[in-house]
Design brief:
The structure holds two protein chains of two kinds.
Chain A: E1 17-21, E2 33-39, E3 42-49, H1 57-61, H2 66-74, H3 81-96, H4 102-130, H5 137-157, E4 166-167, E5 170-171, H6 179-201, H7 205-211, H8 219-224, H9 230-234, H10 241-244, H11 265-288, H12 314-325, E6 333-340, E7 345-352, E8 360-364, H13 366-378, H14 383-393, H15 397-400
Antiparallel strand pairs in A: 1-2, 2-3, 4-5, 6-7, 7-8
Helix pairs in contact in A: 2-3, 3-4, 4-5, 4-11, 4-14, 5-6, 6-11, 11-14, 13-14
Chain B: H1 5-40, H2 56-66, H3 77-94, E1 104-106, E2 109-111, H4 121-142, H5 146-177, H6 182-188, H7 194-197, H8 199-212, H9 224-227, H10 237-262, H11 273-294, H12 300-330
Antiparallel strand pairs in B: 1-2
Helix pairs in contact in B: 1-2, 1-10, 1-11, 2-10, 3-4, 3-10, 4-5, 5-6, 5-8, 5-12, 8-10, 8-12, 10-11
Classes of the chains: A mainly alpha, B mainly alpha.
Chain lengths: 402, 334
């Protein structure tokens, strides 16, 4: 199918203009390419062109042991790496049929929610910047807060964007000393910073003018296109994997699922803002109730033995050697495990043939669905609204072209 | 009649001072803006080149000169080269009639602190500034780039929407001052600045002036988030610098007009007139930067709707009220 067939008229026969937006463009959030058909500045048709960030993560996963796949998952949704790690380790654990200790579950929840905070801050900051003349003040406000979250990641994992802190069966290490206090200090001051951001943005008349009623997505369309996450909830559907199919102990926490009504750019912003506050609540609860105990499942055939045992225990050394060189062998079978990432429902599908590598490694990412819906919601709107729509869908291209 | 050579030299010197003053003003306005926006965004801003980054504009200018001066293959070359010049010269000319202070005596001669006191001064400013938009439209057209074209078209759409409230909002001022000369307008504000008597006109004029200067939130023509860089997407090197200068000098002109028309120009207690003028000018420039750092960009169709449906009726209402008040005053009611 040629690229022109999706447009209303053949190119060159009507008073419309084809505009190639991206992959190098300030507001396409990475390398999204949109082929727009414009009537003046009004969008008549649009076709997203993806693949500019294709990195073959799914195929690579089939050639790596289960342990080795983990760092690749960071690179899909690089804005919210921990939730991606979480989905993967949970999928493998489901395949293996093991349960991780409660402390590890709590720490995973804290990390996943901190990731959601970092990702939503990035989404809000860039979405507002896309509407703004200058690199908005809000972007810097959001980035200051995100910086604090990244410092917390650095504290546990040594890495900021791509922590890979989770391991199959638990965590790579326990929380360092003093980390819980640092996290508490962040959680305490964070709502005030959110108030500051909201004070500039939420009632700003020009912001309202640019976002209210713009690029609406109905609940029916959202479901039909497989939209999940804040975008779906902004359309009024109360669906959150954390509530619908709780994992990693999410059912122990008290939080709400904010929903919007109109499904426009503004509601998506509001839902994300509300989710930031809910995430703060979850982190606070998890920090307060953080249980003591081991951080790894007692599964010597799956989890690496503690470093200090390697000098004293022959068995530990053998396990370490076997796990690092060969990996473990999960039972034959297939699993699908989905988690609520910051963008929506992130699903991992793993097929095991009994070998140390996945036979098939497939990821269902929320941004992929969001790109599909883009032509639908921008049709009939102005060129300036396209960037608002892209920003409000919170697309991460690494996740689209995995 | 023989030519008064000394008078001619004075005019030439004054013209050079105004032109270079504006260029230096532009350079340090960029520094001022970057430092201020840095503060708004909780960062420091340029501080590496010279003390407090004061030599940053020099470094930027040098960089601009050494960039490749690129002309796109299919561009309309004469227009492409001419367009930045139009934008730049329009704003430079418009400053000629703005008085920055009362007359001073130097070497036994009366020296006026403006280049020309045209008796229709404000009309000259409006006319010349309107020409500046041709720089944008032609630059956008000549670049042979779709983003530039859209930027140029937006420029055309913008100019027909803000020009009318821009002119109408001034009618009240003219009626109060009884003159179109900027010098007379300043002198008419000796007792009370017009922003007190004409608050509505001041607001309308300010918004129109922001649109005129293509500044946020009305910087639609270069909207980098949608149009990459709008009308100057294809411009580089010193041609780009000319557009850049035109934008910032037009901001200075807009601020100077705001000061002259509504804030009493050089008038103020204690300090010499020229100092007052600069204090007020810097304050207005601060407002420009402040708005830019905190407001999202408005959509261009909304700007048009807003201008035609809100600003124009408001300006007309302002004219009617002012005229009514003047008639009542002449009748001796108050």
């Amino acid at each position: 199918m040629s690229s022109t067939q999706t447009f209303s008229v053949a190119v060159g026969q009507a008073e419309t203009m084809i505009l190639n937006m991206g992959p190098q463009h300030p507001s396409t959030h990475g390398v999204l390419r949109l082929i727009l058909e414009l009537d003046g500045e009004r969008i008549v048709g649009a076709r997203p062109d993806i693949g500019y960030l294709h990195s073959g993560i799914e195929k690579t996963g089939e050639n790596r042991t289960y342990r080795q796949v983990l760092p690749y998952t960071d690179r899909m949704d690089y804005a919210s790496a921990n939730t991606n790690n979480l989905g993967y380790v949970l999928a493998v654990e489901k395949l293996l049929g093991i349960e991780v200790p409660l402390r590890a579950q709590y720490i995973r929840v804290i990390m996943a929610e901190l990731s959601r905070v970092a990702s939503h801050l990035l989404a809000i900051g860039t979405a507002v910047m896309d509407l703004s003349g200058l690199i908005g003040v809000i972007l810097m406000y959001c980035f200051w807060e995100r910086e604090k979250v990244l410092n917390l990641f650095e504290g546990v994992a040594g890495s900021r964007m791509t922590p890979s802190y989770f391991r199959i069966g638990g965590l790579v290490a326990d929380l360092p000393e003093g980390w819980v206090e640092e996290a508490r200090a962040f959680v305490r001051q964070f709502p005030r910073q959110l108030d500051d951001i909201e004070a500039i943005v939420t009632r700003n008349p020009i912001f309202l003018e640019r976002t209210v009623g713009i690029c609406r997505l109905s609940a029916e369309d959202a479901i039909a296109y497989g939209i999940t996450g804040p975008t779906l909830r902004a359309s009024g559907v109360r669906y959150d994997v954390r509530k619908a199919m709780p994992y990693s102990g999410y059912d122990r926490f008290d939080f709400e699922v904010p929903v919007g009504q109109n499904g426009d750019v503004y509601d998506r912003y509001l839902v994300r803002m509300a989710e930031l506050r809910q995430s703060t609540r979850i982190i606070e609860q998890a920090l307060n109730d953080l249980p003591d105990g081991p951080i790894n499942a007692d599964e010597r055939k799956i989890v690496l033995p503690p470093k200090e045992e390697l000098d004293t225990s022959m068995e530990a050394l053998i396990h370490h050697f076997k796990l690092v060189t060969e990996g473990f062998h999960p039972p034959v079978g297939q699993v699908f495990m989905s988690v609520e990432s910051s963008k929506g429902e992130l699903g991992y599908y793993l097929v095991s043939d009994g070998g140390p590598r996945p036979y098939r490694f497939r990821v269902r990412t929320p941004s992929f669905a969001a790109v599909q819906v883009l032509p639908l919601i921008i049709k009939g709107h102005m060129l300036a609204d396209v960037v608002a729509a892209i920003g409000s869908l919170d697309l991460v291209m690494g996740e689209v072209d995995r | 009649m023989s030519i008064d050579w000394i008078e001619l030299i004075i005019v030439v010197v004054k013209a050079l001072i105004v032109a270079f003053g504006l260029l230096i003003g532009f350079a340090y306005l960029t520094w001022f803006e970057r430092r201020l926006v840095g503060r708004f965004q909780m960062r420091i801003g340029p501080n590496r080149v010279g003390p407090a980054g004061l030599l940053q504009p020099v470094a930027d200018a040098l960089k601009m000169f050494f960039k490749e001066d690129f002309v796109p293959g299919q561009a309309d070359k004469p227009l492409f080269i001419m367009a930045p010049g139009i934008a730049m010269s329009a704003v430079l000319i418009s400053f000629a009639v703005v008085p920055v202070g009362p007359s001073i005596r130097l070497f036994g001669r009366e020296i006026t602190l403006y280049l020309a006191d045209v008796n229709v001064g404000m009309l000259v400013v409006i006319a010349v500034l309107s020409l500046g938009v041709y720089g944008i439209i032609l630059g956008g057209w000549a670049s042979n780039n779709k983003y530039s074209l859209l930027g140029g078209l937006r420029g055309a759409a913008q100019v027909i929407s803000y020009e009318l409230p821009y002119g109408l909002s001034l009618v009240g001022v003219f009626m109060l001052a009884g003159s179109l000369s900027l010098k007379d307008i300043v002198e008419a504000q000796a007792r009370v600045p017009f922003i007190v008597l004409q608050p509505l006109a001041a607001i309308v004029f300010f918004f129109a002036a922001v649109a005129e200067a293509n500044r946020s939130p009305f910087d639609l023509v270069e909207a980098e988030n949608e149009l990459v860089a709008g009308y100057h997407t294809e411009y580089s090197s010193i041609k780009f610098a000319l557009y850049f200068m035109a934008e910032y000098i037009s901001m200075i002109v807009a601020s100077a007009l705001m000061v002259t028309l509504f804030l009493g120009g050089w008038q103020g207690p204690f300090l010499p007139g020229i100092v007052w003028f600069f204090i007020k000018l810097v304050f207005m420039l601060f407002v420009f930067v402040w708005i830019r750092a905190t407001w999202p960009r408005i959509r261009y169709d909304r700007l048009m709707a807003w201008s035609w449906k809100l600003l124009v009726p408001l300006s007309v209402a302002n004219i009617l009220v002012t005229a009514g008040a003047l008639v009542l005053r002449d009748m001796g009611v108050f």
